[in-house]
Amino acid sequence: ETLIGHGQTILSVCFSPDGRLLASGSDDRTVRLWDTQTKTLTREPLSGHSDGVNSICFIPNGKVLASGSKDGTVQLWNTQTGAALCEPLAGHSETVSSICFSPDGKLLASASVDKTIRLWNSETRTLVGEPLNGHSDWVNSVCFSPDGKVLASGSHDGTVRLWDAQSGAAFGEPLTGHSATVWSVRFSPDGKLLASGSEDNTVRLWDPQAGAAVTESVISQRATVNSVCFSSDGKRLASGFADGTIRLWDPQTGAAVGEPLTGHGSKVNSVCFSPDGKLLASGSNDGTIRIWDSQTGEALGQPLRGHIDWFQSVDFSPDGKLLASGSDEKTIRIWDTQTWTAVGEPLTGHNDCVRSVCFSPDGKLLASGSSDRTIRLWDPVTGLAVVGEPLTGHTDKVNSVRFSPDGKLLASGSDDVTIRIWDTQTRVALGQPLRGHTDWFQSVDFSPDGKLLASGSDEKTIQIWDTQTCTAVGEPLTGHGSWVESVCFSPDGKLLASGSSDRTIRLWDPATGLAVGEPLEGHSDWVMSVSFSSDGTLLIARCADGSATTWDMTTRQRCDAPRSLSSYGNPVICDHWVTLQSSRFLWLPPQYWNIRRGGMALFGGLLAAFPNGSLSIFDVSQVLVS
To answer: Which of 145, 105, 148, 150 is nearest to 132 (CA)?
Structure first.
């Protein structure tokens, strides 16, 4: 069953060399990474392009992912952290339609609507030589031969060209035979065949050594061929069609293998085999990615959806009467929790997705942090921006905003690896940016008296800051073996808890910076969230797999938590169930399966969810007390 949502076109899909990741590029301007085992997203969308992502490609060692966009640039990403590795590679004057790494990873080729191909040094991120000119119209696809010596290109001019990857010189005359646009070109694993898919409804096979068509090589269909791909053993050729179907072929005979693969609701833009050839991924205009068993042709599991205008963050007002939500569509909405209707029009002003929203303790202010690098303050009652310009200073997206307990200060954490503290009355930054971490922030938290701020980072450390002087207090707290996902002060301020992707929780004395006792171990997955009970006697940990563990702070042992503790923090979704305290208490119908972390909030006995750009409310009060 297909999930319902405002999905956008999937333009490209690509498996990582080890087959563990599947990357997808979309018209929603993002790249997303999927775990091929769990069929779930591995992290936040990779955002930075200002237009749709036409093409994606992993470097052979899998550590870097390149994306080519309609904005005319190529971006390089760290596949482990999701961070952009450099400024976008700019040189094309029009849309980048296709990109491809050479087999040794040293070169990156990009093809463009500007009719040229450019070669880049992937290490120095600089252009190599002059643009390759020869096509008389858009260049839609590029592909290196397995030995890296030849580059093939397909164009709107209906031809395929072969180039010397070292010198950039064209090999011979263009390969002609197609009567319309060539959308896709791919070499076979042994380099002896080159396949091209065209708008003339055919797939053609070429001998790249001879520069000629292979006899009886034309595979005819009834729809435009948008994408072609060989399996790793070269025994199968997949093609994606404009009619929404996929076909598998024997490239030696040109005969179809099995029936067409059906399931997409619109044209298929991209097909890609997994490295072992057992899986085939397809991306479509219907906004979904499908995974197929390449042997049987059966669809595996549900379509992957993620390229929609997701809600990034939600927060209840202190009195529970209002709910704020921030979205990828650059807006904030305020909801009345009595009637569960939107209050007024969306709050507009940000120029990119809203990544974090937070009410002040008195409920009179709402803060929002955005990928546009700014923070905005709003009156949640009127929906108007507080007089004055946005709070500016960060040089990268703002991931987190948090008010101090008295509401006088606002902390913001950014991908520029700084934290800024703002006076909410004057809207002026206090002191210099807090610098000390060398990698992204995952979490910040004020101490109960507001005098200290703790931050957890991808560099595996926690830093404590003095909010009055805006300076670091002591050295970074070290001990975790991986990213610090969450930090939280105890209600009395005497303990600081940190949860990490190393699956442990550590306790610290914020006054001395020393670890308190041994790490709390035994969690089944990354510890994504830690929170203390109101009396500080219990610590609740929530993991990436949806499980939750409660620790007794007196004995430092696991304990059973009363159901009332489910009101602390937000719920977790695992296998289509809403989970609290390790218990499945609400199964979600299919239309809610695309809710992401941060897209749900619990207040009292009501659960708010944002599946497809709309608000849904579940009364779970009876479940919580049962």
So the answer is: 150
Q: Please give the Cα distance from 480 to 462 (Å, whole number).
A: 9
| pLDDT of 620 over the 80 cut | no
What is each CA distance from 494 to 273, 315, 457, 509, 511, in whole angstroms? Answer: 54, 26, 21, 6, 8
Instruction: Look up residue 373 and give its two tokens.
Output: 């690098």
pLDDT digits (tens, 9 = 90+) for 123-168: 999 999 999 999 999 999 999 999 999 999 999 999 999 999 999 9
CA distance 398 to 368: 9
CA distance 251 to 234: 8
Contact (CB, 8 A) for 412 and 369: yes
- Give CA separation, 591 vs 47, 303, 435, 515, in Å: 25, 12, 43, 45
Per-residue pLDDT, 618: 56
High-pLDDT (> 90) share of the chain, %: 46
Per the structure block, which two tokens stand in for 591?
């239309």
Name the pTM for this structure: 0.54
Is residue 309 within 8 Å of residue 326, measured between CB atoms? Answer: no
User: What domains can be seen in the chain, in order of their start residue?
Assistant: 221-307 (2.110.10.10), 311-433 (2.130.10.10), 435-561 (2.130.10.10)
| Type of residue at 569 | G
The neighbouring-strand residues paired with 70 are: none
Residue 387 has pLDDT above 70, yes or no: no
For 409-422, what is the mean pLDDT?
89
Distance CA 230, CA 236 (A): 6
Neighbours of 40 (CB within 10 A): 15
Task: Give just the sign of the alpha carbon dihedral 347, 348, 350, 353.
Answer: positive
User: d(Cα 25, Cα 463) in Å, to the nearest integer?
Assistant: 35
How is residue 320 annotated by DSSP?
S
pLDDT at residue number 220 = 72
Rounded distance between C-alpha atoms, residue 345 and residue 46, angstroms:
29
* Cα–Cα distance list, 443 to 37, 458, 581 (Å): 28, 10, 21
Strand-pair category, 202-207 with 219-220: antiparallel
Strands (E), 306-365: 311-316, 322-327, 332-336, 341-342, 354-359
Candidates 393, 335, 398; CA nearest to 368 is 398
HSE-CB at 224 with a 13 A cutoff on CA atoms is: 13
Token pair belonging to 530: 């830690």
